Amino acid sequence: MSAPLDNEPFVYTARAHSKVNIHLGVEEPREDGFHELASVFQSLELHDTVTLTDLGNPEVDKPRIQGLKVTGPHAQGVPEDYTNLAWTAVNRIMQYLYTTHGPKALPEVALEIHKAIPTAGGMAGGSADAAAALRLAERCYGGYYGIDSVGEPILDALGAALGSDVPFTLLGGTALGTGRGEQLTPMMARGTYHWALIASDRGLSTPQVFHKLDEMREKGRGGAPHMDTAAVSQALISGDPHRVAQHLHNDLQPAALSLRPDLRKTLEAGVAAGALAGIVSGSGPTCAFLCAGAEEAREVVSQVTVEIPGTKGVATHGPASGAVVL
Ligand code: C5P
């Protein structure tokens, strides 16, 4: 693989796919504050598009990210600086290559994220952008080092250090996540699953939702951990969305509903509009509705977004791929 010619901007583009948790079991907190999970992830067609532009003029010791622009329907509130996980992801690849292969003349780069995934919504949008940025930086800087890939185990490790959901958004498909969600085992899932996603105009903080669950459990509320994924796994093998719908479960849901009681109405409205079942996605507040088909999913989106003020919806399907450079 060769790097682009000097002084010639070159654009690399990647898709960053969102995810839904079909099942999310959450244990008591560990010593490090994280919770042991039994998470059945599914990647969704709904994706952000991340581009990395190689601005040319490679120099040793001077490479940097010139800037980050965020566009698209969910751009509002997304940081356009080093606090964005995608920015950090690019730097981690650069640091890894420097440490393992030594100094090299590298170009300045610019990042752009087109956000179609609701933010702070429990859809792993930030993690997916970081996963895409890891792959883009690997492709761009790898070219200068003359290497095709740093290898999936290294990408996974760099991803896990960025966030618990990053390894899954690198992998995609349908997978069981254990540990803090970063230890993945691909699962068999027949067929295509149609989802209606209803995002809220106010986000929820993931740490706050986990904390709320701990608090509720201390008071004997919030429910026991559901760590057994055998039933949902069988349902996924059957490929029958009606069966999978019976096993949608999220241990974080009582905590998310306690912080956002209004989500109950959204969950009820989705089922009334014809969804097979509805669930808060991850730490919420996005609600995910499994539907019998694409048309039913579109119908749920149009009915619920009219009925519940302050919501935006999208129909999508899974499983999709992990972050991929186009
Ligand atoms: O890993 P990530 O940065 O995405 O996690 C965000 C926060 O969510 C953590 O700081 C923690 O409060 C909570 N979390 C958790 N247990 C997990 C994953 C996340 O408590 N397994």
TrEMBL record:
Residues 234-304 form the GHMP kinase C-terminal domain. ATP binds at P118, T119, A120, G121, G122, M123, A124, G125, G126, S127, A128. The keyword Coiled coil does not apply. Pathway: Isoprenoid biosynthesis; isopentenyl diphosphate biosynthesis via DXP pathway; isopentenyl diphosphate from 1-deoxy-D-xylulose 5-phosphate: step 3/6. Keywords: ATP-binding, Isoprene biosynthesis, Kinase, Nucleotide-binding, Transferase. InterPro entries: GHMP_kinase_C_dom (IPR013750), GHMP_kinase_C_sf (IPR036554), GHMP_kinase_N_dom (IPR006204), IspE (IPR004424), Ribosomal_Su5_D2-typ_SF (IPR020568), Ribsml_uS5_D2-typ_fold_subgr (IPR014721). It catalyses: 4-CDP-2-C-methyl-D-erythritol + ATP = 4-CDP-2-C-methyl-D-erythritol 2-phosphate + ADP + H(+). GO terms for biological process: isopentenyl diphosphate biosynthetic process, methylerythritol 4-phosphate pathway; terpenoid biosynthetic process. It is an enzyme of class 2 (transferase). The active site is at K19, D165. Gene3D superfamilies: 3.30.230.10, GHMP kinase, C-terminal domain (3.30.70.890). It comes from the Bacteria. Its EC number is 2.7.1.148. Catalyzes the phosphorylation of the position 2 hydroxy group of 4-diphosphocytidyl-2C-methyl-D-erythritol. This is 4-diphosphocytidyl-2-C-methyl-D-erythritol kinase. The gene is ispE.
